[in-house]
Specification:
With 413 residues, the chain is an alpha+beta fold. Helix content is 28%, strand content 13%. It has helices at 43-53, 63-74, 154-157, 250-279, 286-303, 320-327, 360-363, 367-380, 395-408; strands at residues 82-84, 101-105, 109-113, 118-125, 129-136, 148-149, 172-175, 181-185, 203-204, 218-223, 226-231.
Length: 413
């Protein structure tokens, strides 16, 4: 469902798998992954029956009220709203500059909605990754909420664009006046290593200040092989009041990009490890050990923001409401420090270790892979060691990250 604009939930040398033919570990329908038959433990799957039955009440007074109450029930902040107007996803016929698609997210749950259309859900199962749902907005109070697991979403979210794991997909496009893509790029890159100049094409972006070094907020026309772009102001072509929030904040875009890259790399590591253990009946060959250690190194490199792209000159302000909602789930140590503490001057986070280490996708890693990542991360955070994966981190930042992890992760040594 987030086909080629989102999520949603993924590619790239700097941040994810590379396109190519499917390898045995990528066959997520087969054992040991059993994507379609394994019992689900993701947050949305566990509560969808209560939503459908009305046990969790939702507001049916209007479409906007329904979406707002659903976000509240799912504990997904409306302030995370991002608006995309390129005609992509399963609902592409409804999406345009006059009717942007809205996306909302937390660390483990993503919600999409097109006014006049359906609700899309990507919920992250600890072992499997993205579980995809789509359902109608009930048109009357008490109307049935038929929540269906979607297999059509896998056309993008289980194929080459997502590295053959059930994750998120992001790309940049220049849409024409009706939302169709005239030009696209960065389909093979995802995550915080992607230069900001390559991001956000096809999206509306607020909170940029004087910085214009991205491809958002513009449409294009193509004539005689020449592309001409036109600025698109926020709210110029649609009614902002139709949406739960009045923003599509730059900070939300940046954090969403970081999370999407993490999800892809973590899922790849987990799927590789689960398949290797299954294939060898619990024993690994030397080649498999090397393969899994490489995957662990890749994940640690991403956790520590080793390849993070620079923020715009002057930094990022961030919408105050979104900053407050983002900080609401912070896990502080005794000194009050947290991995969700923002920097936003030259980099995203004050302490450069991803808060996604608390997420279900990380916590649900195959045990052997999780142990490899933990050991490699500990080595990289040794303040006396100049490790190639943490070469940007000064000793005091390494010590702070180690203290935060020890205080907030139950299984951290």
């Amino acid at each position: 469902m987030w086909c080629r604009t989102l999520l949603l939930f993924l590619i790239a040398a700097a941040a994810g798998p590379v396109r190519g033919e499917r390898e045995p570990w990528q066959d997520f329908s087969a054992a040991p992954h059993d994507y379609w038959t394994r019992p689900l433990t993701d947050r949305f799957s566990l509560m969808k029956d209560d939503l459908a039955s009305g046990k969790i009440p939702l507001d049916h007074r209007s479409e906007k009220a329904f979406v707002s109450s659903l976000l509240q029930a799912l504990k997904v902040p409306a302030s995370s709203q991002m608006l995309v107007f390129s005609a992509t996803s399963l609902q592409l016929s409804l999406i345009s500059t006059r009717n942007p698609r809205a996306l909302y997210f937390t660390d483990d749950l993503y919600v999409g909605w097109v006014p006049g259309g359906q609700i899309e859900i990507v919920s992250l199962d600890p072992a499997l990754g993205g579980i995809y749902y789509i359902f109608d907005v009930p048109r009357r109070p008490g109307g049935a909420l038929n929540v269906d697991r979607s297999n059509r979403c896998m056309n993008c979210h289980g194929a080459a664009d997502s590295g053959w794991v059930p994750g998120l997909v992001l790309s940049s496009v220049i849409p024409g006046p009706n939302g169709g893509s005239l030009m696209s790029w960065r389909q093979e890159m995802l995550g915080h290593g992607v230069p900001l100049s390559e991001r956000m094409g096809g999206w509306l972006v607020t909170g940029t200040g004087s910085w214009q070094g991205h491809h958002g907020n513009m449409t294009g026309t193509l004539y005689a092989g020449k592309l001409t772009t036109t600025p698109l102001g926020f709210g110029e072509t649609f009614e902002v009041e139709r949406y739960p929030a009045a923003t599509s904040d730059l900070l939300a875009h940046l954090l969403h990009e970081h999370q999407a890259g993490f999800i892809t790399i973590a899922l790849e590591a987990g799927y590789r490890a689960r398949a290797a253990v299954h294939q060898g009946g619990g024993s690994l060959t030397a080649a498999q050990e090397e393969e899994l250690q490489t995957a662990a190194e890749k994940l640690v490199q991403y956790l520590l923001f080793a390849d993070e792209a620079a923020l715009p000159p002057g930094g990022v302000a961030g919408d105050p409401a979104f900053r407050q909602d983002f900080a609401a789930t912070r896990k502080p140590d005794a000194a009050g420090r947290s991995l969700r503490d923002l920097d936003l001057k030259e980099r995203l986070l004050q302490y450069r270790c991803s808060y996604m280490i608390y997420s279900p996708v990380f916590q649900g890693l195959e045990p052997g892979m999780k142990s490899r990542v933990r050991q490699r991360l500990q080595a990289a955070l040794d303040p006396a060691r100049r490790d190639r994966l943490s070469r940007k981190l000064p000793p005091e930042e390494k010590l702070a990250i180690s203290a935060i992890l020890k205080a907030t992760l139950p299984d951290w040594p």
